[in-house]
């Protein structure tokens, strides 16, 4: 039995349950609850002129119909703008049910409550909403022309405009540095819209307890604590009377961090009003048209560089398609702007973005959150410089790398968390060396020659990135050892499949010296832990991981103190192995942690025979209990928080070899290699799993996934029949190697890993296709028909 499990490839503890169908997802709960369904706008932009419910009222099983007029003040107001920013001068959020105007297809207008979902949907069909049509605004370029407005009071549809500029060491601006550079290039890059597609959509189930005047809400959310705060505030219920629980969540990928979703407010509100259990679960079409999308950006790049390919000045202008609303602020374009710099030292840098409203689904972060766009921009730039100079693409990158002895490296910008963009650690030259070896970079030209002679087109691509992870402000951990010797760990953030039950248990087992089998982990349940920020920005490992470790250290210290008393030893001479506290080098002088837990509580209930013997206590409450010593608390438990001074920066490099069919233009990925650095790994197997999942999502973004809107703002492919996601058959074996440059910023030396896989994939595959075909790929995703178009009509 080993307890030193940090860094070990422990199998995911949650999988046996989840794979065997024993997970408890939102829709598994509340089988007898009433069901909610929504009438949603079929138009992208329209004024609501009337809502007729007459026919609907006749349906058996109908319980209630609500429109915006029915909502009480707290509920009726627009949903919160979660992350304001001074540059977001015209932030706009939706009403939970549309008030007067709808601004995208799918916006909720009416909520129906009925005995079951079938009846609720039938009722929705009978509700007639009449509209006056307004001109839809689709596409960022049409939007900034200002010909038609998404929000009447937002000129040119520009919600935010932000410029960040970092001068060169000699004080020159980016424009000056580019003008003075020996070589310059300018080009445009386009990334299409995509979206998180968790297998389980959003969902919420609420129970009002009229006797206790309290509310319990289950939500498929990435942040139960924030949903709780929002509900308490909006419904006017005292916070201690609101419990929010994230049950098993079947993927989130970013979309479930937004809170509260309209349904997340409306369902609990109606549950209380009706004093009935009420549930809504999102269907796939609803997920396509009324949750959130991301990625769509147009990027104009100007770069100046020297003969070695060193970038002397870089200027990027971004048009960011924000859809109809900005509930999550302008985090996505801010991340693109700052993370674009990657592992490079850029002479002078200017980035400017406009965040633009369109009559399409709103934009909020999707795994990678703006980084895939930024990396596409930077890595395409590196490839273009190499092509211009006739140099190897890896040499140009290496010429621009921040060197290992230059950390901490200040990029001179402000990051998404409002803190300076300072990289904590990394070794980019070593990553590149490992990647080139893994993929066989230097040997590839010979392979390409052979393939060419056989009439085959193969190409190789590379992409590098740096990723700010573990953003603050804090997370907490609570650890309790009970008198049965079990260790109960809880943290407030939620899990959507990342494997937290496993890694947090590994940390606790290692810190406390207990077998992992005795450790249980609870996440996302406000009854167990009320303060938390949430799971996003690859932050759980860094934030909750460190908080749990710190809480364990407190508990361990107390355990040693109590045990030292019992063993008449010095706590400094004690250690804990396999759940036994013993004198170092003398395993016979030992007591189990279970006994220590009993001794830590003056109200002694001993659960097992050994503890009863050790504490000379028969098993019921000990009325002759000693007082709690001053400065002590009863019980063997502890809580702590971790709050970092700034983010920690993970990094990685990917390479792919692709083959394009000369006739059909089909694109196949032959090999995919990843070198990844997330500092100390808690569990290398889980990190690899995260990378594999991320790469698969990235392949989707590079080759398949695209939200196809027509000029009327209709999403033409709002189903899995038409929106293509890759199957396992489209994903190559992913060859992975690791590098561990520990973060100096946190006690465990870890950096995040949850988004890494997805970030550079589009740029890597674009580079590989370009290398196979010999012409530029400046737009992603790319389909075989688009590749064919480029062959016959080069851009
Ligand atoms: N890990 C590790 N060692 C490290 C870093 C991470 O062992 N040095 C492990 C963690 O302990 C955790 C996993 O890797 O089990 C991811 O950790 P982390 O990078 O902290 O990311 P989070 O846990 O905060 O998860 C969020 C991240 C994001 S932002 C998205 S989006 C995403 C992702 O994770 N959504 C996911 N991965 C996902 N995986 C699944 N299955 N489902 C999602 O919705």
Low-confidence stretches at least 5 residues in length (pLDDT < 50)? none
The mean pLDDT is 95
Report the radius of gyration as a whole number of Å.
28 Å
Question: How would you write the strand order of the largest sheet?
Answer: 3-5-1-12-9-10-11
Q: Using DSSP, what is the number of strands?
A: 29
Number of helices: 20
Small molecules (ligands, ions, cofactors) in the structure = pterin cytosine dinucleotide
Total individual domains? 3
Q: Beta fraction of the residues?
A: 15-25%
Text of the CATH class of the largest domain? Alpha Beta
User: What's the end-to-end separation, in Å?
Assistant: 62 Å
Oligomer: single chain
Helix content: 25-40%
CATH topology type of the largest domain: Aldehyde Oxidoreductase, domain 4
The CATH superfamily of the largest domain is known as Aldehyde oxidase/xanthine dehydrogenase, molybdopterin binding domain
Shape: globular
Describe it.
- The protein is of the alpha+beta class and 795 residues long.
- The protein folds into three domains: 33-134 and 196-290, Aldehyde Oxidoreductase, domain 3 (Alpha-Beta Complex), CATH 3.90.1170; 163-195 and 293-471 and 645-792, Aldehyde oxidase/xanthine dehydrogenase, molybdopterin binding domain (Aldehyde Oxidoreductase, domain 4, 2-Layer Sandwich); 472-600 and 635-642, Aldehyde Oxidoreductase, domain 4 (2-Layer Sandwich), CATH 3.30.365.10.
- Helix content is 27%, strand content 25%.
- It contains 20 helices and 29 strands.
- The strands form seven sheets. It has a seven-stranded mixed beta sheet with strand order 3-5-1-12-9-10-11, sandwiched between helices.
- Strand 9 and strand 10 form a beta hairpin.
- Helix 6 (224-235) crosses helix 7, helix 9 runs parallel beside helix 10 (371-389) and helix 10 (371-389) runs parallel beside helix 19 (761-773).
- The termini are far apart.
- 56% of the residues are buried.
- The mean pLDDT is 95.
- The structure holds pterin cytosine dinucleotide.
- Residues 198, 251-254, 367, 469, 496-500, 503, 535-542, 678-683, 686-687, 690, 693, 750-755 line the site of pterin cytosine dinucleotide.
- Pterin cytosine dinucleotide binds at residues 198, 251-254, 367, 469, 496-500, 503, 535-542, 678-683, 686-687, 690, 693, 750-755.
């Amino acid at each position: 039995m080993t307890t030193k499990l940090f860094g070990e490839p422990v199998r995911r503890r949650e999988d046996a349950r989840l794979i065997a169908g024993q997970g408890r997802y939102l829709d598994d709960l509340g089988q007898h609850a009433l069901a909610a369904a929504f009438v949603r706008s079929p138009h992208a932009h329209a004024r609501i002129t009337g809502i007729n419910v007459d026919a609907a009222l006749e349906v058996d099983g109908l319980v209630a119909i609500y429109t915006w007029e029915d909502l009480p003040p707290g509920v009726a107001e627009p949903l919160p703008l979660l992350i304001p920013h001074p540059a977001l001068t015209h932030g706009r959020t939706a009403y939970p049910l549309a008030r007067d105007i709808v601004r995208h297809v799918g916006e909720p207008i009416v909520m129906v409550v009925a005995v079951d979902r079938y009846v609720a949907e039938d009722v929705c069909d009978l509700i007639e909403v009449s509209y006056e049509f307004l001109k839809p605004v689709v596409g960022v370029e049409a939007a900034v022309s200002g010909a038609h407005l998404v929000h009447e009071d937002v000129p040119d549809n520009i919600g935010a405009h932000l410029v960040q500029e970092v001068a060169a060491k000699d004080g020159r601006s980016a424009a000056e540095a580019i003008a003075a550079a020996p070589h310059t290039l300018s080009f445009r890059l386009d990334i299409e819209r995509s979206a998180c597609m968790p297998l389980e959509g959003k969902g919420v189930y609420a129970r009002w307890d009229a006797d206790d005047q309290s509310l319990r809400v289950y939500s498929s959310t990435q942040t139960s604590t924030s949903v709780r705060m929002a509900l308490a505030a909006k419904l006017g219920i005292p916070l201690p009377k609101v419990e929010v629980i994230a049950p098993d969540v079947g993927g989130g990928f970013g979309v479930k961090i937004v809170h509260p979703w309209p349904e997340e407010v409306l369902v609990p509100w109606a549950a209380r009003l009706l004093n009935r259990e009420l549930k809504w679960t999102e269907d796939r079409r609803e997920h396509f048209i009324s949750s959130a999308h991301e990625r769509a950006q147009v990027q104009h790049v100007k770069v100046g560089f020297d003969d070695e390919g060193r970038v002397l000045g870089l200027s990027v202008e971004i048009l960011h398609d924000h859809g109809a609303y900005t509930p999550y602020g302008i985090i996505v374009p801010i991340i693109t702007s700052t993370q674009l710099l990657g592992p490079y030292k850029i002479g002078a840098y200017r980035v400017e973005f406009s965040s633009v409203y369109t009559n399409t689904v709103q934009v909020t972060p999707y795994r990678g959150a703006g980084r895939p766009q930024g990396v596409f921009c930077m890595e395409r730039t590196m490839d273009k410089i190499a092509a211009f100079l006739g140099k190897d693409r890896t040499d140009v990158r290496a010429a621009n790398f921040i060197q290992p002895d230059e950390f901490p490296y200040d990029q001179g910008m402000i990051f998404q968390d409002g803190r300076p963009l300072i990289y904590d650690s990394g070794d980019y030259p070593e990553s590149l060396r490992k990647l080139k070896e893994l993929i066989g970079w230097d040997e590839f030209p010979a392979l390409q020659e052979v393939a060419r002679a056989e009439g085959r087109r193969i190409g190789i691509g590379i992409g590098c990135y740096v990723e700010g992870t573990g953003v603050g402000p804090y997370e907490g951990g609570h650890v309790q050892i009970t008198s049965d010797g079990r260790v109960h760990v809880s943290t407030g953030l939620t899990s959507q499949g990342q494997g937290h039950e496993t890694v947090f248990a590994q940390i606790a087992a290692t810190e406390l010296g207990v077998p992992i089998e005795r450790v249980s982990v609870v996440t996302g349940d406000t009854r167990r832990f009320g303060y938390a920020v949430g799971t996003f920005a690859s932050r759980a490992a860094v934030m909750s991981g460190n908080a749990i470790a710190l809480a364990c250290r407190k508990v361990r210290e107390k355990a040693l103190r109590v045990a030292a008393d019992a063993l008449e030893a010095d706590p400094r001479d004690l250690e804990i192995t396999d759940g036994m506290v013993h004198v170092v080098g003398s395993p016979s002088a030992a007591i189990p942690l279970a006994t220590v837990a009993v001794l830590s509580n003056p109200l002694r209930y001993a659960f097992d025979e050994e503890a009863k013997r050790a504490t000379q206590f028969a098993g019921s409450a000990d009325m002759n209990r000693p007082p709690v010593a001053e400065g002590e608390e009863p019980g063997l438990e502890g809580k702590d928080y971790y709050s970092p001074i700034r983010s920690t920066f993970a990094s990685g490099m990917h390479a792919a070899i692709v083959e394009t069919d000369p006739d059909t233009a089909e694109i196949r990925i032959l090999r995919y290699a990843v070198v990844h650095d997330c500092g100390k790994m808690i569990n290398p197997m889980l990190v690899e799993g995260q990378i594999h999942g991320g790469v698969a999502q990235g392949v989707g973004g590079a080759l398949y996934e695209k939200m196809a809107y027509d000029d009327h703002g209709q999403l033409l492919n709002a189903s899995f029949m038409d929106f293509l996601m890759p199957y396992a058959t489209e994903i190559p074996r992913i060859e992975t190697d690791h590098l561990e440059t520990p973060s100096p910023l946190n006690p465990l030396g870890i950096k995040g890993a949850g988004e890494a896989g997805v970030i550079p994939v589009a740029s890597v595959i674009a580079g590989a296709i370009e290398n196979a075909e010999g012409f530029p790929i400046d737009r992603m995703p790319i389909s075989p028909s688009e590749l064919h178009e480029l062959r016959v009509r080069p851009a």
